[in-house]
Every structure is written in C-alpha cells, then in structure tokens.
Write a structure and sequence with these properties.
The chain is α/β, with parallel strands linked by helices. The protein is built from 7 helices and 11 strands. The protein folds into 2 domains: 159 residues, Alpha-Beta Complex (Spore Coat Polysaccharide Biosynthesis Protein SpsA, Chain A); 80 residues, no CATH class. Helix 5 runs parallel beside helix 7. The model has no long low-confidence stretch (mean pLDDT 95).
Length: 259
C-alpha cells in the first residue's frame, strides 16, 4: 500500500490594529490551522486577548506601512505555506476544505482565492464579478509587492486559482468607505511606485466616469440595488481623488522649482 498523502502544515498570518469587532470571526474561521500569527501595531482594545484565545502567536511592532507590515508578519511564520488574511476577512467552511485539499502535495508556488465583498448592508449580488488575489503561498517563493496601497503577493513560480471564496466585511457604512478612499488616494500619491500619467488633467475630468461604468455596469454591481450604486459612486470618487492629488503634487513640485 502507498503512503497516505500528507497535508503541508499551514501558518495563517493576520495584521491588526484595534480589530476587536472582526478578529474573532476571522480567527474562528481558521482555528484548524497549524499556526496562527497575529502582528499588531499597537491595539488598545480587546484585539490581543481575542488573538491569544485562539492560541495565536501575538507580536507587536509599530506600523511600517501595509506592505511592509504584512511582510514582517509573514516572516514570523514558522511553516513554509502561509494563508494571508486581513482582520476583517473570514474563510467559510467550504473554502477551508478547498484550502486544506490544495495543501496536499501542492504543485504550484501559490493559489488565488476569490473575495466576496460586504457592501454597506448586504453582500454583493450573485453574478457580480469577484476580485481574486494570491493569498495562499509558499513563503520561500513569495514576497509582498512593496506598494504603499493595493499591496499584493508576488510569487516566483506558477499560480493556480482555487474554487474558494474569502468573505470580506470591510467598511460597514458610507463614511468609512469615503474615509478609506481619501486615505488610500493619498497613500497612492505618496507611493514611490506611482508616477503621474500622461494627460493627467483629462484623466481627472473623465476617468471617474470610466471607473463608475466599470464598477457599476461591467462588474455588475447594479445588481446590488442602492448599495451597489453608492459603492460605485464612492469608487468613482476615489478615482477622481487619486488623479486630483497627483495633479496637486505635480503643481507643487513645479512651483517649488521656480523659487
């Protein structure tokens, strides 16, 4: 008889800051993992006690930026295979089964998982296009991208799409989503990887309409009723802010060069 297939041990990695509202559901969904690592950046709520209740390795370091903080958390893991989750994400039971199965003699360097978004007061509608990201990976062949915002895992090797969905609870109200759009647009302008594109003023005028059309019609968020419409408007506002702040930055650099 042949030897049974053995699953690769898994480290689940999460970064936190005052996430007591969502962390319990996040860690409960992966309590079966061989290791849970939580890297905190100075929480003052119940984040630490929740993490320790799940037997997590809990460490604290000052926030170094989204990408660098997640890389530091990944580096704390003791197992080769890592599942990276945000503190407001959870892995449903069916997705957990798919992840465990994927770790039996994996033939790739990483796996992409779909992500389902909570939109204010409801889940995004069925048949709406889901985003997908590399979240399960061999950490010896992967690193964070280094971007200040919209950071991602870069994998040296083949990547496979899993039929598994992460639930992302995200911002629970419009104010939170607008605040995130403002914060992320500033971070993107400050990102060393970001360069002002050509025809910046035309993008500032027209691209928000393109962004709305893609989000609302092409990706299908019109199926989510008013929640989808509001989310599309905020997404378009984010696109406008990004280019407006780039324009502002370029004007300031030009004006400072005159003095």
């Amino acid at each position: 008889m042949g030897s049974p297939c053995v699953r690769e041990p898994l480290s689940v990695v999460v970064t936190t800051l005052d996430n007591e509202d969502t962390l319990d559901a996040c860690l409960a969904s992966v309590r079966w993992a061989d290791e849970i690592v939580v890297l905190d950046s100075g929480s003052t709520d119940r984040t630490e006690s929740i993490a320790r209740s799940y037997g997590a390795v809990f460490r604290v370091q000052p926030f170094a930026g989204y990408s660098a903080q997640k890389q530091a958390a990944i580096d704390l893991a003791t197992h080769r295979w890592v599942l990276l989750l945000d503190s407001d994400e959870a892995l449903p039971a069916l997705a957990a089964d798919v992840v465990r199965e994927a770790l039996v003699a994996p033939q790739v360097a990483g796996f992409k998982l779909w992500r389902r978004e909570w939109v204010f007061w409801r889940w995004q509608a069925n048949r709406t296009r889901l985003n997908h990201y590399v979240r399960l990976f061999d950490r010896e062949r992967a690193r964070m991208s280094g971007h200040e915002v919209h950071e991602s895992i870069e994998v040296d090797g083949p990547v496979q799409q899993l039929a598994a969905v992460i639930d992302h609870y995200g911002e629970r109200d419009i104010a939170g989503r607008v605040d995130k759009a403002n914060r992320y647009s500033t971070l993107q302008v400050d990102d060393r990887h970001t360069r002002a594109p050509r025809a910046l003023r035309l993008r500032m005028v027209f691209y928000s309409g393109v962004a709305f059309t893609r989000y609302y019609f092409v990706r299908g968020h019109y199926r989510a009723g008013w929640a989808g419409f509001i989310a599309a408007r905020v997404h378009a506002f984010y696109a406008f802010l990004k280019y407006a702040k780039l324009y502002e930055k370029r004007r300031r650099e030009r004006d400072s060069g005159r003095h």
